[in-house]
Amino acid sequence: MIFGIPIQAFAGQLLVGLINGSFYALLSLGLAIIFGLLRVINFAHGAQYMLGAFTGYLLLAALGIGYWPALILAPLIVGLFGIVVERLALSRLYEVDALYGLLFTFGLALVIEGVFRYYFGVSGNPYPVPSQLTGATNLGFMVLPIYRGWVVIASLIICLATWLLIEKTKFGSYLRAATENPKLVQAFGVNVPMLLTLTYGLGAGLAGLAGMLAAPVYQVSPLMGSNLIIVVFAVVVVGGMGSILGAIITGYMLGLAEGLTKVFYPEASNIVIFVIMAIVLLFRPAGLFGKDA
Amino acid sequence: MPEPATLLSVRDLNAWYGESHALHGVTLDIREGETVTLLGRNGVGKTTTLRAIMGLVRKRTGEISFQGKDLMRMPLHLTARAGIGYVPEERGIFATLTVDENLILPPVVAQGGMSVEEIFELFPNLKSRRNSPGEQQMLAIARILRTGVKVILLDEPTEGLAPVIVQRIGELLVELKTRGMTILLVEQNFRFASKVADRFYLMEHGKVLSQFAVGELESRMNELHEVLGV
Fold first, then answer.
1. What is the pLDDT of residue B230?
2. Minimal CA separation from B81 to chain A, in Å
3. Beta-carbon contacts of residue B40 (< 8 Å; ≥ 6 apart)
4. CB A126 within 8 A of CB A219
5. Cβ density class A180-196: b for 16+ within 10 Å, e for less
6. Among A215, B1, B92, B96, which is least packed by CB within 10 angstroms?
């Protein structure tokens, strides 16, 4: 017993918090990368997450392609979709006010979700847990469904890999430099327009990967993204717009905070993240990891 | 001895910042291996001339050719690839990058650039990886030397630096000249410029007033006093 709560219930809610936090971290990471370089608030991020889940679902339903190949294919397909969107539309909006990018991605999200709702309804479709990851293991203090443990580990690996890509590689140094001063980086001979395209593709691909990971946990539904994206925006604001590490750490922290609230005061669990956001904004308007302007 | 070939040629260059007409028909010729300095008071268009050559100011008319290549229609990132390096007035050191990352950031565009070892030999201070204004300026120049460009556009490299660093940069520019580098320098510090430059263009109100070689400096002092107020 911890504070009068059975340890199984406590650990169970912490796990739910950690799972949610994994998706918050993956999604806010992509949003932070896109915002940092493109200065676009990507409202289509939730739709791209949903596209990832549906790509996996359709690959299985139509072509019989299973979870593991889909884990590679879904992010690639969603990333390619992002690249096409950036080339055809977003790239034409960089010269105008940032509001246009926000409105465009918001509209795009509505269109994508509308199309999927038309064909698939809102009830959602189950996606089977891959056979290697079915079942549960008894950790002594709680029973852990193996797939959920895999989600936590996979998201940690993806976050770490993305962080390394940005902090330790040549591509990452271009990306960081162009985030500071894109014109100068281009004047040095770096193809910055291409860098912007690839970065949007990377962010969209990360959202697609998160969606594919989520497919066996949640129902594959056209609205799965829009339910999540509002929370993810709160995570990005708390972490600090454009801060990569801030997005990752805040994602996990707020997921856990939400889980803990479910244990101690379930009524507040839906709003706790927004309460934290309001408090953080009062004391640190640039976010926990953001640089003060 | 035959005159060296013209490397960078600018004809009747006009440039605008929004509605503001900043350059009114600038014409320049930079020959291979020369150090040329643009002189003039604040706001006469020296920095704008460099930015327009580089392609950072896109609203421009006239002709800019480099080794016979037309730079006017070239996308920004291909100007550097053609062989022109740029050291901006604000130095442009990236705060989120380490000194080493800053040093190797600009892509190598041609053979013949310095290796990182040679750069550390020429700039021993960079090894300390500190971040004083002088070291930032050295770093801003050093990272361009790695790329193998033929011409460096250098905007006020001595601004705000201690005399001992200014002297060090002067020595460096002379060293670069002996290695055959072509330099287009913007400089307010007239004494500094007179020590490193072969030729001068005097600018006022977005135009070139006159040009002269370093040997004519004495006979031009009255004109310079009048235009520069030095």
1. 63
2. 6
3. B46, B202, B203, B204, B227, B228
4. yes
5. bbbbbbbbbbbbbbebb
6. B1
Residue A273 Cα, gap to closest chain B Cα (Å): 29
Contact B96 A179 (CB under 8 A): yes
To 10 degrees, what angle do helices A7-38 and A224-239 make?
Answer: 80
Question: Is A245 within 8 Å of chain B by CB?
Answer: no
Q: Do A173 and B105 touch (CB under 8 A)?
A: yes
Inter-chain contact B77–A189, Cβ cutoff 8 Å? Answer: yes
Query: ipTM for the complex?
Result: 0.92
A256 φψ region: left (φ > 0), alpha (ψ -120 to 50), beta (else): alpha
- CB pairs A-B closer than 8 Å: 55
**pLDDT score at A8:** 79
Helix (H, G, I), strand (E, B) or coil at B199: strand
**Rounded CA gap, A42 and B86, in Å?**
33
Short-list A289, A193, A205, CA closest to A246: A289
CB contact under 8 A, A177 and B56: no
Q: Report which DSSP code applies to A286.
A: T
What whole-number distance in Å separates Cα of residue B90 and Cα of residue A183? 13
Which of the two residues, A10 and B203, has the higher pLDDT score? B203
Query: Residues B125-161: pLDDT tens digits?
Result: 887 777 788 889 999 999 999 999 999 999 999 988 9
Q: Is the pLDDT of residue A51 over 80?
A: yes
Token code pair at residue A7? 């340890």
The mean predicted confidence, pLDDT, of chain B is 91
Is residue B222 pLDDT above 90, yes or no? no
By C-alpha distance, the chain A residue nearest B94 is: A177
Q: Which of B80, B95, B101 sits opposite A188 (nearest CB)?
A: B80
- Probe site for chain A from B71, B78, B105, B149 (most A CB atoms < 10 A): B105
Tell me the two tokens of residue B180. 């055959």
Decide if B145 contacts B180 (C-beta within 8 A).
no
Indicate the CATH number of A7-121+138-283 among 1.10.1660, 1.10.3470, 3.30.420, 3.40.109: 1.10.3470
User: Which DSSP helix (H) or strand (E) runs through A277?
Assistant: helix A272-283
Taken in order of first residue, the domains within chain B and their CATH numbers are 6-228 (3.40.50.300)
Q: Give kind and range of the element (H or E) at residue B54.
A: helix B46-54
Would you call B76 an interface residue with chain A, using a CB distance cutoff of 8 Å?
Answer: yes
A177 touches chain B (CB under 8 A): yes
Facing A176 at nearest CB: one of B54, B94, B147: B94
Residues across chain A? 293
- Whether the Cβ atoms of residue B188 and residue B46 lie closer than 8 Å to each other: no
Q: How far apart are CA B30 and CA B34, in angstroms?
A: 7
- For residue B1, the model assigns a pLDDT of 53
